[in-house]
C-alpha cells in the first residue's frame, strides 16, 4: 500500500510520503516535483518541461534527457514508498497524480479565495464577519515557510507561479490586517505589519494599516516615523510622494477612520 504524497513549495521544496520526509536531491528532481505538483490537474507537455528544466541548453538530446529525469522521479517515488504510477503519461505529456489538498500552494490559494469571497459577501463598505475572515486567512497564510519555489530551476512557469503566489499573499495580508482592525486587534497589526512591509515596501495599503494601528494604540510618534519612512521609500524608489490615503491618515482621528472593503 503506497503512502500519500504531499508537496510543499511555499519555502524550500518539501515532500513527504505517508507523513515521512522524502528528501529531494538535485535541482532538476526538485523542479519536476514542484512543477508537476503545481499543475497536477493537467498534463504538462514534454516541451514545457524541457524549457522549465533548461534541458535544451545543456544537453544534445533534450527528449532523452527528460526521459532520464522522469525515470529518476519514478525511482524516487518507489524508494520512498509511493506508487510509481503516480506519474501518468499521455502522449508526450506527464502528470503527477497528487490530491489538490496535498499541495501547500493549492491549500493556500483555495483558502484565500474562500476567505476573500466571505469577506466581500453582502458587506458594502466593510468586511463581512471579520473574525471569521481573520481566522481563515491566518490558517491560509500559515502554509508559508519562506520564499516560494526558492530552490527549483528558474524557468518561466516557475517564475510566474512564484509571482502570482506572492501577489495573492499580499492581498491576503491586506485583508487580514483590515479584519484585525475591524475586530479591535491593532496590537496584532502593529506586530505583523513591519514584516509584511519588508516583503512589499511599495505597498501603500500595508503602510496605511500599520500607521492606523499605531494611532489606535496611542503610539503617535511611531506613526509619524512610519509615515516619514514611507515618504522616504516612495520618493527614493518611485520619485513620488505617498498617495492621499497615507498623507491624510496622520490628520484623521483614529476613531473616525473606517476600515475599507477588501481590495
Automatic annotation (TrEMBL):
Domain Bacterial transcriptional activator intervals: 103-254
A Pfam family annotated for this UniProt entry: Trans_reg_C
Keywords assigned by UniProt, alphabetized: DNA-binding, Transcription, Transcription regulation
Positions of the OmpR/PhoB-type domain: 19-96
Domain of life: Bacteria
Secretion signal span: none
GO biological process per UniProt: phosphorelay signal transduction system; regulation of DNA-templated transcription
GO molecular function: DNA binding
Stored Gene3D superfamilies: Tetratricopeptide repeat domain, Winged helix-like DNA-binding domain superfamily/Winged helix DNA-binding domain
InterPro entries noted in UniProt: AfsR-DnrI-RedD_regulator (IPR051677), BTAD (IPR005158), OmpR/PhoB-type_DNA-bd (IPR001867), Sig_transdc_resp-reg_C-effctor (IPR016032), TPR-like_helical_dom_sf (IPR011990), WH-like_DNA-bd_sf (IPR036388)
CDD domains for the chain: BTAD
Protein family according to the UniProt entry: Belongs to the AfsR/DnrI/RedD regulatory family.
Protein name per the record: Regulator
Species name: Nocardia terpenica
